[in-house]
Amino acid sequence: MKKALVILVGLSFSLLAACSGVQTHTKGGEIKKTLEGEIQDTDFIQTIGIGAADQKMDNKTQKMATSRTAAITMAQYEMVGVIKGLQIEGGITVSQAMEKDSKITALVNESVKGAEVIKTEWTADDGCIVTLRLSKKRLAQMTKMNFK
User: Fold this and answer.
1) Measuring CA to CA, which residue among 117, 132, 136 is closest to residue 43?
2) Is a pLDDT exceeding 60 seen at residue 38?
């Protein structure tokens, strides 16, 4: 079996998003030149990741699967970054709490792995854009932290 070379596209975008709908990030099979989003005070953390597969692969399904995996990985990475910046009671960030307690790091990582894929879009060249969403309430329950 061919080993797929996955190229993570460094373009990513994170935002706190409302449930009201998920933006479309493609138009005519291409990634939009501008990815817009409003940062809103809501109950969810939402991130997107963009992934590409090795174009030398012959199998379209394999290209699509590897680009989706790359996009999910990038969106999860972005989500961890957003979570690290959240303020918790006591005036510190999640990142600071993670430095003091490795259990918190494991719980954050577990929470992110459980984030729900709410949208998957493919481009004409079999690249993929994935939108992930994680409930702040669920994150607070899993990590036993109270967010400001």
Assistant:
1) 136
2) no
Minimum mean pLDDT range among 33-37, 39-43, 44-48, 137-141: 33-37
Distance (Å, whole) CA 141 – CA 83: 14
Domain total in the chain: 1
Q: Is 29 left (phi over 0), alpha (psi -120 to 50) or beta?
A: left
Mean pLDDT in the chain? 81
Q: pTM to 2 decimals?
A: 0.76
Three-state DSSP at 59 gives coil
Residue 126 lies in a domain: yes
Which burial class, exposed, middle or buried, applies to 118 when counting CB atoms under 10 A from its CB (0-12, 13-18, 19+)?
A: middle
